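Field: COMPLEX_INPUT
Field: COMPONENT_COUNT = two
Field: RESIDUE_TOTAL = 684
Field: MODE = joint
Values follow.
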Amino acid sequence: MTEVPPTAAQPEVSGIDASARVPLLLLLGSAILWLIAGGVLALVASIQLHTPEFLGGCAWFTYGRMQAAQETALVYGWAVNAGLAVALWLLARLGGGPMRGAGLAAVGAAFWNLALTLGIAGIFAGDMTGFAFLQMPAYVQPAMLVAYAAIAAAGVLAWTGRRTAFTYATQWYAVAALFIFPWVFSVAQVLLLFVPVHGTLQSVVAAWFGQNLTALVLAPFALAAAYYLLPKISGRVIGHYDYAGHAFWVLLFVGGWAGGRHLIGGPVPAWIATTGIVATMLLLFHFTVVAINLAGVFTARGSTVLRFAALGLAAYVLGGLLDAITAARSMAKLVQFTYISSAQAQLLLGGAVTFAIFGAIYYLAPRLFGKPWPSSALIRAHFGAAALGLVLNVGGLLVAGWIQAGDLAQPAVAFTAIAADTRPWLFAATAGQMLALLGALALAVNFARLLLVRAKQPAETLFRAPAALEVPAS
Amino acid sequence: MKSSPLFFFCLFAALGISLSVFVFGTNAQYGGLGPFADENEGATFPQQPLGLAARGLLVYQDLGCAACHTQQVRRADFGTDKERGWGERQSVARDYVYDDRVLLGDLRAGPDLTNFGQRAANRGQDAAQLMVFLHNGQGAMPAYPFLFSKHKIVGQPIPGALTLPGRPSYELVPTPRVQALAAYLLSLKSDHDYPETARPQPAAPGGEKK
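Field: COMPLEX_OUTPUT
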């Protein structure tokens, strides 16, 4: 299982990237548009938490619908689109051959985003399903399943047709994400929407799906990127790489079980909560190994890409730790149903996944299009706004949740009082959302300019010194 | 890790095990759970929701009420659900057997609604008062004016129209949607004791153990 990761000496421009240009442009372009749309929706939802009358006069903009729409836009629009783009690019590069099935992937990407647009319109019109992470109406979901399969096929082909027998951690995580999503998505569709199971079995299946989607699809996209970027940019080997395989299989075998922690004390068989708690504790092994493997991102200097990856890794490990702490029954009793759960979701999606993908985009886009980023100031602005935004958003929600938990534990405190107590911290979360949106706009402007500007010199000469493409850190 | 077949076999196994246990295992354990026939009362519980209330669940779902309200009472020593008056006993799986879509909820920005109908009855809140509350909102609870049409009273008031406190010349005509929602909320009541909720014995499968 030990092998040397690809080195920076490999040619930076190749037919591999050219073959992937069209589908990746579609995936990345729509991902960035969804990031902005989702950011706006998340901002509105965040405002509505402390100012309920905001946009309240219209059925389309109730908090419930806004919340479902922003979650769908950011998960299925931003994270999945961008995650797929990164995974396909990594698999094609590590596979060592031009991308096969690129045309099919482009068609799939078009249909994925078409169906998603329809799905979000459906949520606003009142067709949301009510299941977390599966809010899109039933009528768009089968089309999205087919579209995903069409996109993922290119990645699986790159894996099976790879030129080298041995495989690297990036490839395991990327292939797992490509493969697991259609499986859990189809199971959830059938058992929740088309032939629904009875009673609280629905809650069990929904928790299982949500856990698989976040821990075994979205997080692996981020891990695939981080395992690739660190050695590639820093030129150093992964520390204690021998354990990476163990971390991977622990995540795969145990990760899906941890969804039960959301049902502690709920009207479901007790063993579901118990296995959920045990699984969450076992995952600490996965987080420890990942932290040791990728610790180099914290010490590497001079690379903005790795700064994004470092923040993503910190959010990932912190999120795992927080999951373990809040899963303990004595803690769950207090913090269940508070904003702390929202903070945990933000830490994984807005932190770990989003930042790792930001890093990957800043690394791959110049290579994909053969042009350097037009503005490194915009990239630094993006990093600053996004980092501060994440801290404010997660921090605000954590403090608000902690106050809410304390108030809920005292039966005499009414909900109007709880709302007043949490209000200042929910304002902080809103400020965080606003900064995150500004950061996303910086990325969008830079990306649009990258596509529009004409390359000043042929890509081959440009890439003779790959460091020139690397975004300077200061 | 060189062998693709072995890799895919393990991937299948990893997902297959969690799928069989979580999805098929739970289904085998209590997928066939039905209502409880209470011989003392000659009726089965929980009671099937009536037409208007059943339609109200759809309104509850499409407005996203479950984003802020839970519908699950936790046991007495686990949180303050009982002290807050949300339910005398914890919710069990049997309470939900008639729900077409189970929306347990995961945030309590507002109170738990498992026994909302019971509480409303206790404080004498009827459908008309509840609808006025939904129109006005209160505190962190937003107003839902779009579920009504509001206009000046001309001649005779429209039958079924509501009046707003302090606005005598206006009438509030509830839409069928809000009538269904109010009927649904007022129907929320799971207080019947089943064998698995009989205190002090430990709960049977399908209920959280004490």
